């Protein structure tokens, strides 16, 4: 999400320098973010000289990452969804841990119709989560995991008890599973 803040104007000191503190209030954000600050220095003629500063912010000293080893966010139906897992710091250096909690969740969408005076008939859905697999992993090195999937929408969750951060990665399994969501697998489109 983009958030813009205007900072107070400042004047340069006798050496032509100025310092600026940027308030970083990220609330409940739990994902790394890129922070960009753009500064304009007005010349005596009124023309600005613009400079940009970018930094990456991490919500914890180390984070668990998952890289899917399948294409286009769709794992093979009735097969194994394969992921490479790593726990790294902001420099990308691997940081081992004795245990992380892994869960594979199947997300079932049940579609329905509803009517209201403002919009007329429109579809909606309820999501039901079903735990497919749960295990504890020792991440002593980069690790590959294979998780059994059928067809539909899935979510991989990995909790790091040390940092209290949870990775959530949604993906699909099987031909047409992603299209069902893109089209809106609505009641009027069912055979």
Q: Could you give the topology of this structure?
A:
Blueprint: E1 33-42, E2 48-57, E3 62-68, E4 74-75, E5 80-89, E6 97-116, E7 120-139, E8 143-148, E9 152-160, E10 165-173, H1 177-183
Parallel strand pairs: 4-10
Antiparallel strand pairs: 1-2, 3-5, 5-8, 6-7, 6-9, 9-10
Total count of helical runs of at least 4 residues: 1
Share of helix among residues? under 10%
What is the element string, with H for helices and E for strands?
EEEEEEEEEEH
What's the alpha carbon Rg, rounded to whole Å? 24 Å
Assign an overall shape: extended
Proportion of residues in extended strands: over 45%
The number of distinct β-strands equals 10
The secondary-structure class comes to mainly beta
Characterize the biggest β-sheet: 5 strands, mixed
Low-confidence segments = none
The side-by-side strand order for the widest beta sheet comes to 4-10-9-6-7
Roughly what is the average pLDDT, rounded to an integer?
A: 88
Termini distance? 38 Å
Could you walk me through the main structural features you see in this protein, from its secondary elements to its overall organization?
- It is extended, with a radius of gyration of 24 Å.
- The chain has 191 residues and is mostly beta strands.
- It is built from one helix and ten strands, in the order ββββββββββα.
- The relative contact order is 0.19.
- The two termini are 38 Å apart.
- The model has no long low-confidence stretch (mean pLDDT 88).
- 4% of the residues lie in helices and 54% in strands.
- The chain has one helix at residues 177-183, and strands at 33-42, 48-57, 62-68, 74-75, 80-89, 97-116, 120-139, 143-148, 152-160, 165-173.
- The strands form three sheets. The chain has a five-stranded mixed sheet, with no helix packed on it. A three-stranded antiparallel sheet has the order 3-5-8, with no helix packed on it.
């Amino acid at each position: 999400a983009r958030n813009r803040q205007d900072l107070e104007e400042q004047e340069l000191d006798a050496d032509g320098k100025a310092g600026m503190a940027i308030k970083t209030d990220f609330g409940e954000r739990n994902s790394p973010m890129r922070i960009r600050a753009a500064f304009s220095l007005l010349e005596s003629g009124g023309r600005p000289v613009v400079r940009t500063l970018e930094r990456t912010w991490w919500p914890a000293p180390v984070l668990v990452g998952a890289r899917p080893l399948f294409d286009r966010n769709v794992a093979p139906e009735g097969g194994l969804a394969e992921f490479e897992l790593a726990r790294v710091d902001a420099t990308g250096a691997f940081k081992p841990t004795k245990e992380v909690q892994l869960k594979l969740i199947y997300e079932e969408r049940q579609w329905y119709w509803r009517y209201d005076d403002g919009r007329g008939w429109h579809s909606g859905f309820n999501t039901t989560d079903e735990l497919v697999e749960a295990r504890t992993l020792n991440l002593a090195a980069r690790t590959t995991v294979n998780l059994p999937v059928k067809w539909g929408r899935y979510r991989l969750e990995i909790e790091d008890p040390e940092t209290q951060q949870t990775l959530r990665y949604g993906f699909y399994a099987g031909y047409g599973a992603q299209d069902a969501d893109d089209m809106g697998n609505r009641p009027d489109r069912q055979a």
